[in-house]
Write a structure and sequence with these properties.
163 residues, mainly alpha, Tetracycline Repressor, domain 2, two-stranded antiparallel sheet, 5% strand
Length: 163
Amino acid sequence: MRETITSGSVGKAPGNRCLYPEGGKKEMAQAVLAQAEAWLDAHVLTPLAGPGTPPARLENMAQALDAFYMHGGASCLLDALSLGEGGEQFRDHIQTAFARWIDALAALVVAQTGCPAAEAQLRAEDAVLSIQGALVLARGTGKTEPFQRVLNNLPSLLFSARR
């Protein structure tokens, strides 16, 4: 890491120093995204494809999300990285992360319900949409109950018969 002065040149305004990696904010954001992808693999995707019944695997994912997002009190990192200039810069990584998560949930739905893949995909998208929407709502209202409600309702959202 190197010392970078937020005002622009090293040596000026010593009280205004920040630490950034050699590549600056872009490199720092890439490192954060890499950590997020590794966390997603280890705590969401691997458990969803791992041993156990589909409901048990879903519960493991929900518990991991609950802990990671501090029971709904933390913002979604993928959402934060998609804003501003980061949206363009990290679009492919973010799209891939969401696609992998949705695909893993869809496979879980098929395993539990036997429903067609297209229906499972829609259910998985609805689940991720609900999780992400609940995080935005929790951030905007300061209330974590919607996030908790979504996590508790995931089994019915994904596994219940639809009309």
